[in-house]
Amino acid sequence: MNTPVSLTPSISIIDGFDMGMPERTGSYILNEDKLTIIETGPSPSVKHIIDGFRALDLKLEDVEYIILTHIHLDHAGGAGLLIQHCPNAKVIVHPKGKRHLHDPSRLIMGAKAVYKEDFDR
User: What is the CATH number of the domain that holds 58?
Assistant: First the structure.
């Protein structure tokens, strides 16, 4: 079970275990007026976000915003998968990043070139 870390009474961080490594990436959960997730991490991190929400006793259906600081896969690669679990959420991303969310093929090619055989971890 992924245990979220409380930073303040209304802000927690959930470890994304990117590439199977603890504390490599994380998603911030703002449980204030509008339940918000900042950063999704890559797609394999989504299961850790789901587990973290259970541990926090929060519902993904209550998420109103998913904010992506930028579109690198280790920050936003899981957005498409996570939004399927957050039907009421709106994804917030810089306008220049929007096209990469619709077609991440160039980002994926670049990440595969960097991470090589570790890409699928």
Answer: 3.60.15.10
